[in-house]
Amino acid sequence: MHPMIYADNAATTSLSPAVLEKMTPYLTQYYGNPSSLYSFSDAPQKAVARAREQVAAVLGAQPNEIYFTSGGSESDNWALKGMAQALRRKGKTHIITSAFEHHAVLHTVNALQKQGFAVTLLPVHENGLVRPDELAAALREDTGLVSIMLANNEIGTIQPIKELAAVAKAHGAVFHTDAVQAVGHIPVNVAELGVDMLSLSAHKFHGPKGVGALYVRRGVVPDILIDGGAQERGRRAGTENVAGIVGLGEAITLAAANMDQIAPKLRELRDYFIDHALSIPRSRVNGDRVHRLPGNVNMCFEGIEGESLLLLLDLQGICASSGSACTSGSLDPSHVLLAIGLPHEVAHGSLRLSFGDETTMEDVQYILEKLGPIVERLRAMSPLWERIQNENR
Ligand SMILES: *Cc1c(COP(=O)(O)O)cnc(C)c1O
Hints:
This protein is α/β, with parallel strands linked by helices. It is built from 14 helices and 12 strands. The protein starts with a strand and ends with a helix.
């Protein structure tokens, strides 16, 4: 069998050996609790402080604006639940987000809605982009919080966050962005973007799983999500995941340093793949082709089921996805593809490939070589494809 080709870097990435090397001493030698007062805890304490500086430096933030969390989902939950509760005391109970956010945001606003908050979901249009003028039109007297993701995890579209944040700010609303797919892959600077809060997660850029951060601009104060000890300056309790935090700091630094080299290579692989895969009849690219993450491919092939496609690709050693890791396993089509206006039956036939630093041109050619015949084979067995053919006759 062909060696495995991993093309699902949007779901998670490999842990960089250099990152692991920096983490290991904090799992073995330096196991002290950073909050303890004896000198044995100096090393873990300093390591956490250094990682905070590393994250802040990459984002253009101050170290005391960085809070470590257990990952992207917690950061999103804290930003939205914490800020919504704080804003409610000022009479601001309306939240605006977009229709194609990650479930860590969408399910969180659903939960807030049940607690009495009003929620508006902005449309994302066929190109997968939120329009600043539509955000402006959706703002209300009681709008306190706006959350729009920087880059979409399924179709990779990159939102005009600077413009969107400016619209929210002019209205006095707090602006959060889920930048989990963007950080480490495209330049992300909180000052340039003008955002108040930003979520990131280490395992999306070759760091360890289970650790992330929330950037919170000075002066912005969300309520506390995790109550307990005085860690993270009293705002996020729990003994620090020291090795994870060290890994996050190292991974974000490496990703930022390598970005100028890796991103152009990924864009080339992405565009090569899309240009060639489009020669398959009745195929389409989902989401804007320009405002798009360097390594993201998302396409639909009419008349087939994404699940079957994934299984046959897996038999050829190819790890791909039909959208988000959260929807695989359920038979519902992706909410992202429905949000960009695809009919159910087309949205079912989706394929997401997310290339990473380890992806080669040979890998891309191998996937292309396998994809065409697999799609053909599935269509030959598909009643849906037969119907499509008949309709066109
Ligand atoms: C992966 C992801 C998350 C969740 O992050 P975890 O660290 O896995 O909890 C949130 N938002 C987006 C856009 C993601 O891609």
